[in-house]
Write a structure and sequence with these properties.
A 5-stranded mixed sheet has the order 2-1-5-3-4, sandwiched between helices. By secondary structure, the protein is α+β, with helices and mostly antiparallel strands. A hairpin with a 2-residue loop joins strand 1 and strand 2. It contains 8 helices and 5 strands; from the N terminus they run H-H-E-E-H-E-E-E-H-H-H-H-H. Helix content is 37%, strand content 11%. Helix 4 packs across helix 8 and helix 5 runs parallel beside helix 8. The relative contact order is 0.10. Bound molecules: FE2/S2 (inorganic) cluster (2 copies). The site of one FE2/S2 (inorganic) cluster has 12 residues, from loops.
């Protein structure tokens, strides 16, 4: 039995062997490719046989996204993530790109009031939804005072819930949704561990668990927990 050659040298050695021992030889890589090309061309010529179309490198379409109450019509590659649409096409750079793999939470935004990793969400999947980013959370478009901010933004300020601030927009969006989830009785794994499955309180363990998708490499966790605890108890500014 022949072994597929890995290098040009191996391949030419194999072809040399093949020329010397044509009957005992099975297939070279070059022959395989030649045969595959010939078969594809032959199939295309047969009526009724479908041959896959070549993959287009770019497929653009018009899309309208509703973000922070405003509609934006764009022409995007259908594979564009919501995060890239926000940052690269709409200049909404509050949502951050940390890992681009759904692991850090820096890109968290709200889609129909549910938190999502916008790096893992296709922009086209969010068409028709109400998208809220950190830029749209405050009570007024251009806040000038702490009282103009969303209570969670104010609580992060009051409790010093950040250091470099890179994770903060995602932390705040996530925290807003986490408090709402707890209010409507959504359970976490901590609720099952503690047995408090009948509308569990927002204890620090619950906060840590519910915020565990948001990583802070500065380690501002104690202050983030304090901010979320304050809002969940109605104690923020
Ligand atoms: S950038 Fe989206 S989860 Fe990290
Ligand atoms: S404040 Fe720096 S990563 Fe969280």
């Amino acid at each position: 039995m022949s072994v597929a050659p890995c290098t040009e040298v191996e391949e030419s050695q194999q072809e040399e062997q093949e020329a010397q021992h044509p009957a005992g030889f099975e297939f070279s890589r070059r022959r395989f490719l030649q045969a595959a090309t010939t078969l594809t061309a032959a199939a295309a010529a047969i009526p009724g046989v479908a041959v896959a179309a070549p993959i287009e490198s770019e497929q653009k379409r018009a899309i309208t996204l509703k973000i922070n109450g405003d509609s934006h019509t764009l022409t995007l590659d259908t594979r564009t993530s919501l995060l890239d649409a926000l940052r690269e096409n709409l200049d909404l750079t509050g949502s951050k790109k940390g890992c681009d793999h759904g692991q850090c939470g820096a890109c968290t935004v709200l889609v129909d009031n549910r938190r999502v990793n916008s790096c893992l969400t296709l922009a086209f999947a969010a068409e028709g939804a109400e998208i809220t980013t950190i830029e749209g959370l405050a009570k007024v478009p251009e806040p000038r005072d702490v009282s103009d901010l969303h209570p969670m933004q104010a609580a992060f300020l009051m409790h010093d819930g950040y250091q470099c601030g890179y994770c903060t927009p995602g932390q705040i969006c996530s925290a807003v949704a986490a408090v709402e989830e707890q209010k409507r009785g959504a359970l976490s794994i901590v609720s099952f561990h503690t047995g408090h499955t009948d509308h569990p309180e927002m204890t620090d363990d619950e906060i840590r668990e519910r915020m565990s998708g948001n990583i802070c490499r500065c380690g501002a966790y104690p202050n983030i927990v304090a901010a979320v605890r304050a809002v969940s108890r109605g104690l923020s500014a």
